[in-house]
Structures are given as structure tokens and as C-alpha cells.
Specification:
5 helices
């Protein structure tokens, strides 16, 4: 027998042994997987039976962005520049309205309405379910942009844009900070 054949024989033998080990590992993995899935199915069924109206996972209790939220002070006012037809702005608005008690107030500036068209502003506010009590108490103000975004951003502003007024200082906020 030549050394080459012996090497080939060892390689073939090694591959056969590795193949058997893989088959055994695969079998163990499948058994574990089946037990885990059976447990999960039983858990889900019991949860539905015991708590039919409750979600299995309460997403609000999961860690995440809530841990990294921008901290506001009670005297801060948030300036929010939005378009009347801006789905991305609507998402930001909903987040701001949920957090409005964390800061002094929210000043909403509508960028693409005809200046002075207060009826359009009221219609927009009603469509976005802005609580009239928040507006009457001035916790939320509704404003025409009238060029404010362009002035504050040297003409480079796009919606949605967020800024924080703390005292006399004005700083830009990132939407991802919310």
C-alpha cells in the first residue's frame, strides 16, 4: 500500500467519524428543539386560557429606547416643525404628545399651510386628535411657520424638525433622541 492510499484511507475514515458525530449532534438538537417547541405551545395555550385579553409580552415593559430618552426640564419648550401631510411627522407628533407632561410645552409649527389660514390649522389639529385642553392651557401651541424654520436653520430645515428652547438657548434635537 502506498503512503498516498493510507492518507486517503485516514481521510475517508476521519470523514466517516465526523459524519457520525454530526448525525448524533443533529439528532440531539432535534430532540431538544422538539421539547422546547412543545413547552412553548403548552405555555401559549395556558396563557390564552388564563389571560385571554392580555398580550403574552408587554412591549411597554421591554428595555429599549425608553432608557435613552432625552431628558427634559419642566421649563423646556419643544418646537416641532411639521408638514400637514407628513406621515413621518405624525409619528414624531404622537411621541411628543405622549411626553408633553415632561416639558414646559410643545410649540407646533405647520410649514406648508397658507399663512393666516387658521381654519386649516384647526382642521389639522382635529385630524391629529390634539387635545383642545392642551391648546387652551397653552401646553401646546399651534402656529403657522411663516419662515421660522428657514430662519432658525439658515434655510436648511426639513420636516420633521425638533428644537428645544431652554431659557434663551435654542438647540436642535434629533428625532431619534425621543
Amino acid at each position: 500500500m502506498s503512503p498516498f492510499n493510507v492518507v486517503n484511507g485516514l481521510v475517508v475514515c476521519s470523514i466517516t467519524t465526523i459524519g457520525k458525530q454530526l448525525e448524533s449532534t443533529r439528532s440531539n438538537y432535534c430532540t431538544k428543539r422538539d421539547r422546547i417547541l412543545a413547552f412553548q405551545r403548552a405555555y401559549d395555550e395556558a396563557a390564552k386560557r388564563l389571560y385571554p385579553d392580555a398580550p403574552i409580552i408587554d412591549i411597554a415593559r421591554l428595555p429599549g429606547k425608553a432608557d435613552k430618552q432625552t431628558s427634559f426640564q419642566s421649563g423646556d419648550r419643544v418646537l416641532f416643525f411639521t408638514g400637514a401631510e407628513c406621515p413621518a411627522c405624525d409619528l414624531v407628533l404622537n411621541t411628543l404628545l405622549k411626553r408633553v407632561d415632561e416639558f414646559g410645552g410643545l410649540d407646533i409649527y405647520l410649514t406648508d399651510l397658507v399663512p393666516g389660514d387658521d381654519a386649516a390649522v384647526r382642521t389639522w389639529a382635529a385630524e391629529h386628535k390634539i387635545d383642545p385642553d392642551l391648546v387652551h392651557s397653552r401646553r401646546v401651541t399651534l402656529n403657522h411657520d411663516a419662515g421660522a424654520l428657514a430662519k432658525l436653520t439658515d434655510g436648511a430645515g426639513t420636516v420633521p424638525t425638533l428644537m428645544r428652547r431652554r431659557g434663551e438657548a435654542l438647540s436642535k434635537l434629533s428625532v431619534s433622541d425621543l
